[in-house]
Amino acid sequence: MNLNKKIKLTEFSPGAGWACKISANDLTQVLSKLNSLNINKSIGFETFDDCSIYPLNDKQSIIQSVDFFTPIVDDPYLFGQIAATNALSDIYAMGGKPLFALNIVGFPTEKLKLDILSDILNGGIDKCKEINIPILGGHSIKDDVPKYGLAVTGIINNDQIIKNNTAKYNDDIILTKPIGTGIITTAIKKNLCDKSLENKAIEIMNTLNNRAAESMMEFEINSCTDITGYGLLGHLNEMSKGSNLSAKISYNSVPVINGVSELALNKIIPGGTKKNYDFIKDHVKFDEKITEHKQFILSDAQTSGGLLITCPKSESKKLIKKINQKSSLKATIIGEFIKKKNKRIICNEWNLFR
Predict the structure, then answer these.
(1) What would the DSSP string read from start to end of 174-186?
(2) What is the pLDDT of residues 321-354, one digit of tens each?
(3) Residue 34: exposed, middle, or buried by beta-carbon count in 10 A (0-12, 13-18, 19+)?
(4) Greatest Cα pair distance in the chain
(5) Which residue among 14, 19, 56, 346 is buried most deeply as judged by most CB within 10 Å?
(6) At what angle do helices 231-243 and 292-299 cross, to 10 degrees?
(7) CATH topology of domain 172-348
């Protein structure tokens, strides 16, 4: 193979970023057959939360998460930055502080120049420098499909742990980033995305959730998760199920990246998004005006998405104001938690929550 030719990194990926994730249906089947191993009051995969928790003492716990995926963009440095941003997000979703990270690398050394791997790793390093944490090493293997991500270790006070299954009745539901990156990155892979839309998606995926998390910790927060591979509806479904409530959301209140609707109408839908929809559709009551392409957008497999936060109505507007003072990506109320219905999510079209 000619290593000197112009490389399009996404051509080496069977899917775009988090759209490569094992489907929710398949993963649920696998995890249901595993034996849980609870030692020292640790919390692992059993709760489907964002991080595992290992208590150090009565006051603090270690929180741990790992995320990696295939190329989401063609620029190796930006791919490294986005993968690192995504991996750090789980720590922030739980209210923790990242301490350090380790690299996870799969790379086709006989097909791609090693300089490309250096650029990927430097992207991860520079993103971690933004929050002043080190990458202390890691592990690499030869792999026909490039893969990169981080295992991140953080720390949290035990009385400040925010979980994804503790939403309360009448909570507002807040989303801190617009959705649609899965559809856009699929368009990038197919050479169907204009540069301005690509750049917007990169900006969103490359924006850390640290400022939103820092703002969140100043308020009374009942629950939080981050939006990644299972899409907005998938992660909201986990939150509803765990909290024994139903979520009512307004499509017109959900921030969607400009240009995504047109792509979805033209059937540019990731395979991971379609799998998300197949898994979630029986748990959602869609208003008749929520057409198929809108249902796919709500199910879209996100990479490095925003935080999904629930809090009392008395806190929501103050929290949004605080977040929006610090971030260029505007948080908004997209819905509320209601008493449990026969569906976990009710989705209407009109904007009811501003």
Answers:
(1) EE-S-B-HHHHHH
(2) 999 999 889 999 999 999 999 999 999 987 655 4
(3) exposed
(4) 61
(5) 19
(6) 70
(7) Phosphoribosyl-aminoimidazole Synthetase; Chain A, domain 2 (3.90.650)
